[in-house]
Write a structure and sequence with these properties.
Helix content is 66%, strand content 3%. The protein is an all-alpha fold. It has one domain: Fumarate Reductase Cytochrome B subunit (Up-down Bundle), CATH 1.20.950. It has a two-stranded antiparallel sheet with strand order 1-2. Helix 1 packs antiparallel against helix 2, helix 2 packs across helix 4 and helix 4 packs antiparallel against helix 5. The model has no long low-confidence stretch (mean pLDDT 94). Bound molecules: protoporphyrin IX containing FE.
Length: 205
Amino acid sequence: MSEKLYLYPVWVRLWHALNAILIILLIISGISMQYSDPSNPFIRFDIAVSMHNISGMILTANYVAFLLGNMITPNGRFYKFNYKGLLGRIVKQFMYYTIGIFKHEKPPFPITKDNKFNPLQKFTYVIAMYILVPIVIVTGWALLYPELVLTKLFGGSGLKINDFVHVIIGFFVSFFMFIHIYFCTIGATFVSNFKSMINGYHESH
Ligand code: HEM
C-alpha cells in the first residue's frame, strides 16, 4: 500500500512551475543567441534578447519569492545541512542509486514529513538554488547594466569574465534540470513525483 504525505505547499508548487517554465524559456532563448547563425537564427535575435531579458527579470522576482518563502515558512528547514556525517550519507544514497536500486533494496533514507529530500537530493537542490541560480541571476543583471559596475571597475575584461561565468553556470543549471527530471522519474511510479508537484502529495512505495 502506498502512503501519501503532503510535502509540497501551494506556494512551492507555484514557484516551481513558474521557475521551470522561465528556465526553459531562458535556455531556448540563450541557446538561440549563443549558437545560431545571425542571418538565419533559431529565434530572431532581437526577439531572443527580449525573451531572455524579460524571463530573467521575472525569474529574479520569483527567486526572491523562493528565498522569502524558505525564510518564513517551515519549507526552509529541508535546505539546511546537518554537516556531521554528511559525506557518508551522500555516498550511501549514491551507492543506492548506482547499485542498491538495481537489487531492489529499500531506499536508505525514506521520505518522511520531516525528511522531504534524500541527502543527495538536498545537496543538489542547495547547490542549484543557493549557489548556481543566484550566480546566473547576478551575472545576468550585470550584463544588462554593465556600466554600473563591470566596465567601471574592471573595464572590458570584467565584461568578458562575467559573460563567461553567466554562460558556464547557466549551462550547469540546464544540466541540473535534465538530471533533476531524470531522478524525478525514480519514484513510487514513473510519474508519481511529477504528480506530487501538481497535487502536493508525495507518494511513497
Ligand atoms: C520541466 C522542468 C522541471 C520538472 C519536470 C521538475 C520536476 C520536479 C519534481 C517532480 C519535483 C518534486 C520531487 C522532488 O522534490 O524531487 C521537483 C522539485 C524541485 N525542483 Fe524541479 N523540475 C523542473 C525544473 C526545475 C528547475 C529548473 C529547478 C531549479 C533550477 C528545479 C528545482 C527544484 C527544487 C528546488 C525542488 C524541491 C522544491 C521543494 O519542495 O522545496 N526544478 N521538481
